[in-house]
Amino acid sequence: MQNAKDSFYMALRTRLTAINPERTILLRGTVRPGIVVEEAEAPFSQLPNDVFIVRWLGLGVDMDLGSTMAAEECEIVYQTCGTQSFGGLDRGRSLSEMDEEVAAMLAPFYTPKLNYTATPPATMLTQVFWDEPVFAPIAVQRDRLSRSAKVMVYSYQEQGE
Amino acid sequence: MAANWFSAPAPVARRVRGYFAPVNRAAQTPVLFDASEQGGFNLDAPPAPWISLGWIQEFTRKPASKTSPVLTGIPAATLEQVRETLEAQVGLQFLSWTKLTMALATGSQHMNLLAAASGASQAADGAQAVAAVTPQGGSTATSILLASADAAKFTAGSIIALDVDYTGQMGFVGAPVAGAYVRQTLTDVDYIRRVTFNVALVSQVNSTGLTLAEPLPGGAPAAGAKLQAVTGFVDREGGSFYQEWSALFVMQGSQGERIFFHYPRLQTMAGAEEAAIPLDGKNKGGQARILLKGQYLALPVIDPLDGERVLCYRSFLPASKALV
User: Fold this and answer.
1) Following DSSP, what letter does each residue of B258-273 receive, concatenated?
2) Contacts made by residues B26-31, CB under 8 angstroms, sequence distance 24+
3) Mean predicted lDDT score pLDDT of chain A
4) Which class for B243: exposed (0-12), middle (13-18), buried (19 or more C-beta within 10 A)?
């Protein structure tokens, strides 16, 4: 299942780089695409603005199949205060931009499954696939707007996993 | 050592893509789809002459062939089975309204509403039309060359229909798709352009002609073809004509596998009908998407492989490295 989670994240990260290369984050001294996996980073005292946080939630498995299917619930959390140059008055537009980027990152709704513990990453036999996102309502905290989108990510367990 | 195969469960697919190809009605020749040669095609760019119908939903196949037992002995037991009738039906809802999907989802002729001539008397399926103009030599499927005075009669964003004049033809008319069957001589010189499927949107107009946003289904204008502006489409409940088409439906599985349902001959078996699907499931009285419903009867073809009569071919291309 970890291979599916890694592949999903890397697919989104690669796509984000093409969609909006300017969305980046400075993390541990390195500039990276602006999407991070929450469980793979040091705990955040407060989520960073203008970045996508990938959070893994529920898990289900269906073992009555030729290959066991795993369904992993993913939440993509993001928030913004807008830009300083507009005094934050563009925070709604900034959030809309991030909404569009989430929708664009998720299409097409599949990606090859790779094993990222190998160097270079090894392509596996199956594909990871997912459904359309379900967007939550905007949450307002003073001048900060935040939203999350939930996606169910499916994958087949392969031999050796 | 890592395995180089996997046991694939049942395919998981989202929606169904539909594709259309014209049946040569006069020669009763359908278009055949060969999954072995064409199965890997780009779903957004089907091989000619297939034309995408977009996404469809509520795709249902209903085999209605009847079999009967041949009984023998006392008490009787089934010795053999015989196939008494051959029948299959297909139902679907189109997720787009186009000339093609409207025409296929109606029970009879589907007509283009030609731009009306000034002061023409009103008619339910379009008044007398503005006179057609003739394309010049060198026109292509996406570029119609016209005299500058003719080009000035069209605007970017308008729709055109291109086909020959009606001059007393009988039988199937319209190219590349038969749009009607003429049983008695008509008087409307524009009749074939009213029923033709050869329509397209104009993206640009200049003094030398029109550039089309999409290629004409019939390709470059044929000799004698003329064009007229179209304002919309109309079909009727009633009439005696049956649309017939070669159909291909594709389900793309999550692992890259593909299921094809190929009906060489489909004829509509229901009148025009719509389905209203609320955009917000919690607000049934709110905005609703209006979908075209289609119900079809599959007609048989003779498979030259073994001479059997068949209604549909179901092909399956497994996922890469999946056990079969």
Assistant:
1) EEEEEEEEEEE-S--E
2) B26/B171, B26/B172, B26/B178, B30/B246, B30/B264, B30/B265, B30/B301, B31/B246, B31/B264
3) 95
4) buried
Mutate to test the interface with B, among A3, A126, A128 (most CBs of B within 10 A): A126
Average pLDDT, chain B: 94
What pLDDT is recorded for position B121? Answer: 92
In 3D space, the residue among B59, B166, B51, B158 whose CA is nearest the CA of residue B103 turns out to be B51
Contact A160 B2 (CB under 8 A): yes
Taking 60 as the threshold, does the pLDDT of residue B243 lie above it? Answer: yes
CA A85 to chain centre: 28
The ipTM value here is 0.82
A→B contacts (Cβ < 8 Å), by residue, are 65-67, 69, 109-110, 122, 125-127, 129, 154, 156, 158-160
Furthest-apart CA atoms within chain B: distance in Å: 86
> Has residue A161 got a pLDDT over 90?
no
Residues 6+ apart with CB under 8 A from B260: B33, B35, B39, B248, B249, B250, B313, B314, B315, B316, B317
Q: Which tens digit of pLDDT belongs to each residue from A21-38?
A: 999 999 989 999 999 999
Whether the model pTM is above 0.80:
yes
User: B231: closest CA among B100, B94, B120, B125?
Assistant: B125
